[in-house]
Specification:
3 domains; about 375 residues; about 15% strand; two-stranded antiparallel sheet; seven-stranded mixed β-sheet; globular; SAM-dependent_MTases_sf
Length: about 375
Amino acid sequence: MHPRNPYKTLPSFKELAILYPDFRAYCTFDFRGKAFLDFKKSEAVRALTTSLLHKDFGLKVNIPDNRLVPTLPLRMNYLLWIEDLLNLTCHKTSLGKMNDNIIGIDIGTGAACVYPLLGSKKFGWNFVATETDSVSFDSAMKNVAENELHKKILVKQSAEFFDILQNDNVKEFLQNVRRISKETETVSLEAADSDQSPCKQESKQESYLIDFTMCNPPFFSSEVEMDTNHNNKKETRSQPRSVSTGSAEERVTDGGEISFVDKLIEKSIQYKDSIKIFSTLVGKKSDVKIIINHIREKTKGLNVCVTDTEFCQGRTMRWGIAWSFSEIPLEKVISKKQKMSQKPYVLQIPRSMMAVYSIQSVWSQDSVMAEGY
């Protein structure tokens, strides 16, 4: 789990049960008063998510029946990873904080509109959120309105990926975000004036309309594949604690997630000068290398940087892939597991170069060689 994820420490179900009667209705208690939740009931999982959203972020969220109930540890992992990637762009104010004119696109935002709501409330970002399903779209609109975040989140019912940027309402929304930001923030260009700063070029670039995109695509190509994958997990590893929620449309797409992300890649080439960082979740580890290879094949001849990471939350694993056509060193952001897998630096010094072959003398020789270099 991301080191800044607030759910590294498990929430107190007892505290939630005291604060939220709707959540308490799905709890059982032992003789010591410890609360337990039945994760196999979708209503219980929904009550947990909505209670945590309100308690931890002050968000009032309603999620219709038969629609995906987002698990917050995963959503926070993804958003915090995006924040790490954005930090590479040096999109900072004079106080060293990230600008509030950051704009992202959430493709397939879902009924909860969870990424835009969390991103706006927790990080101060702005979002254009798209959704194809009419029930989920209506719910997302109501959730944005209920939390009075309509100035920071624009929800559009659309099957388009990045072509949504051609929409007049979207253009007006983006202009308003940039205008308000310029009126309220003074951006420091001190780093850009330094020739040694890696942020010099990025700080002066004004052509990008969008800072990042994110997407939680349907993972399966059919309901048969979804059921087969579920049964295979029973034999290979522990079952997820929580029941699977969501409509078939939220979990199934023609060609599966590889086909879906392929379309994102093709569109990203078209919008490479308008969007800084493209990203997506991946549901199957075996698809990660395939998708990265597709990015490199489809962008052959273009300057593209690609990185990936893994998101671990309990028994559920997901993976993230990001790519950019800008000169952003995305590969600098690596997960804890990737850090642990890196081989240590090794310096070999022959005995013939040492009068005394000891750790102290080798350390001294290493310092001399470094100064000479």
